[in-house]
Amino acid sequence: MSARWVKWASAAAYVVMLALGWRYPLLGTLVFAFMGAFVLLGGRKKWCASACPRGSFLDVVWSKLSPRRQAPKWLSSWKFYGVALSTFLILFGTQLLLAHRAGGLDARSLGFIFWRMCVISSLVALPLGLWANHRTWCSFCPVGKLIRL
């Protein structure tokens, strides 16, 4: 399987998950499970480069719209990453707590949380790609940074 095919398939998965995840929340769970399996099977370094659904979408589609300006250095600083990660974890933890209080955590509720986190982070990633470089989000993506630690 070529890297180009993986990138296109992954970008398509991103679009499908964003479009249908609210109706079929298990799609969010599947994307999260795919990431976990990929990383556990030794694809840590390749996840961000070719298998990450958002990164693939940003490469395949958003790169055509991006002005390809260099992002400010502070966006890739560890200090900014700490703020971004803290915000991400607070949002994620709050949603887990609310779902637990509302009736428990199952694959469906977790999938909806993963979908919602993807939507929220896409609302940051997509405008950044139109403002600077299409992959600006990747410089402080919480998942990518945690995988590389």
Polypeptide structure, described:
InterPro entries: 4Fe4S_Fe-S-bd (IPR017896). The protein has 149 residues and is mainly α. It has one domain (3-148). It is 73% helix and 0% strand. The two termini are 28 Å apart.
Q: What is the secondary structure topology, with strand pairs?
A:
Blueprint: H1 3-20, H2 26-51, H3 53-60, H4 78-102, H5 107-131, H6 142-148
Helix pairs in contact: 1-2, 1-3, 2-5, 4-5
Determine Rg (CA atoms, Å). Answer: 15 Å
Mean pLDDT: 90
Low-confidence runs: none
How many independent structural domains? 1
Distance between the termini: 28 Å
Helix/strand/pairing category: mainly alpha
Run of helices and strands = HHHHHH
How many strands appear in the DSSP assignment? Answer: 0
What is the 3D form? globular
Q: TL;DR of this structure?
A:
The protein has helices spanning 3-20, 26-51, 53-60, 78-102, 107-131, 142-148.
Highlighted features:
transmembrane helix; 149 residues; mainly alpha
